[in-house]
């Protein structure tokens, strides 16, 4: 019997959740493509191993950028590859799929995600906002009349939301996240040491030395790359506080966006957040001192949740269970059947009609 699946379609990683089995797939959002034939050679972990090591006739493609699909065709093939590996298809029916999205996703981006999921064999496709899914995944009761605040720091976007009674009361989604930290590290090493490093090295530096607060006792790391002056291989030693300074501007911008969300929050819900604190999820939650930086800037308790990398994927599974067992599915969830599109939220319907009208113009 086919089982419904939840997908955390992240810029950095794709996670797939299966009921009763938990997270059964966690692989990088990368695809290796033959430039001559257009054939997909590898996806996920195998493509990641090739990153920075391929000949000219093979490209490593990031089909998702900034939290949304940048290359629909490649994203479809990547999802198809992952779902086929899990062998979830059935002759009786196709699986229902719930996919999380950033809070400010456009109609065009929504349709791209839906199209990819349908072509991968999904029957009914549900889209839900990422911070809401993350909150459910960490066990917050977002359906009660109390305020909960979540900051989900992923690879392509940082989503910040205050939730109450099953909806986002105030929210922001900014395209500043883990990938931008990698770029800042790459640029710093290039300017300071005239050393060119690859994506994998930048990510390793972030994971091993990344810190949101200045440290009294620093850690160090030897990195290798290509010298810009001589063109020859070269290794250098870098330190934690160097990485702190090059990441500082991006992290403080995320803090400022969180402050603006709090400014727009109704007073009663703001009071709840003082009592309950702010939960941070995603890969960015693992940056050393991120909770301390946010607590200092926002003057509110901040907690790194258990298992922050899997929170969104776990939330997709919990939401699917709720949908399946609820006789009256929530109005804020959108459904797409293989033949008919059903939009339960009148506001969303109005937005889509307005978008189609603008397209006609």
TrEMBL record:
One family name in Pfam for this protein: MreB_Mbl
Biological process terms in GO annotation: cell morphogenesis; regulation of cell shape
Residues binding ATP, per UniProt: 11-13, 155-157, 203-206, 283-286
Any one GO cellular component localisation term in the record: cytoplasm
GO molecular function: ATP binding
Lineage: superkingdom: Bacteria
UniProt subcellular location: Cytoplasm
This protein's UniProt keywords: ATP-binding, Cell shape, Cytoplasm, Nucleotide-binding
Main location class: cytoplasm
Family: Belongs to the FtsA/MreB family.
Function per UniProt: Forms membrane-associated dynamic filaments that are essential for cell shape determination. Acts by regulating cell wall synthesis and cell elongation, and thus cell shape. A feedback loop between cell geometry and MreB localization may maintain elongated cell shape by targeting cell wall growth to regions of negative cell wall curvature.
Quaternary structure annotation from Swiss-Prot or TrEMBL: Forms polymers.
Protein name: Cell shape-determining protein MreB
Protein's organism: Granulicatella balaenopterae
């Amino acid at each position: 019997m086919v089982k419904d699946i939840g997908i955390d379609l992240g810029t950095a990683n794709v996670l797939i959740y299966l009921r009763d089995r938990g997270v059964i797939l966690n692989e990088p959002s990368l695809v290796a493509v033959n430039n001559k034939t257009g054939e997909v050679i590898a996806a996920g972990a195998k493509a990641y191993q090739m990153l920075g090591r391929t000949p000219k006739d093979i490209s490593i493609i990031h089909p998702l950028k900034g939290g949304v699909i940048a290359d629909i065709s490649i994203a479809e093939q990547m999802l198809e590859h992952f779902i086929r590996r899990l062998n979830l298809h059935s002759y009786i029916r196709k699986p229902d799929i719930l996919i999380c999205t950033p809070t400010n996703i456009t109609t065009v981006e929504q349709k791209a995600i839906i199209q990819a999921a349908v072509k991968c064999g999904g029957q009914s496709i549900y889209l839900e906002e990422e911070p809401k899914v993350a909150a459910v995944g960490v066990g917050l009761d977002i359906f009660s009349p109390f305020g909960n605040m979540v900051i989900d720091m992923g690879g392509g976007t940082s989503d910040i939301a205050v939730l109450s009674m099953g909806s986002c009361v105030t929210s922001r989604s900014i395209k500043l996240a883990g990938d931008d930290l990698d770029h800042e590290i790459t640029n710093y090493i290039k300017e300071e040491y005239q050393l060119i490093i690859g994506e994998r090295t930048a990510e390793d530096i972030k994971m091993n030395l990344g810190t949101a607060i200045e440290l009294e006792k620093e850690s160090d790391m030897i990195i290798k790359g290509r010298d810009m002056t001589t063109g020859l291989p070269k290794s250098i030693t870098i330190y934690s506080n160097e990485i702190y300074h090059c990441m500082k501007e991006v992290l403080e911008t995320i803090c400022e966006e969180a402050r603006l969300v709090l400014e727009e929050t109704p007073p009663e819900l703001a009071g709840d957040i003082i009592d309950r604190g702010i939960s941070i999820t995603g890969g960015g939650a693992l940056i050393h001192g991120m909770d301390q930086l946010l607590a200092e800037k926002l003057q509110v308790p901040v907690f790194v949740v258990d298992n922050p990398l899997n929170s969104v994927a776990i939330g997709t599974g919990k939401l699917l269970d709720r949908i399946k067992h609820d006789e009256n599915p929530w109005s804020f969830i959108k459904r797409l059947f293989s033949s008919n599109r059903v939009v339960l939220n009148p506001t969303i319907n109005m937005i889509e009609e307005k978008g189609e009208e603008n397209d006609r113009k």
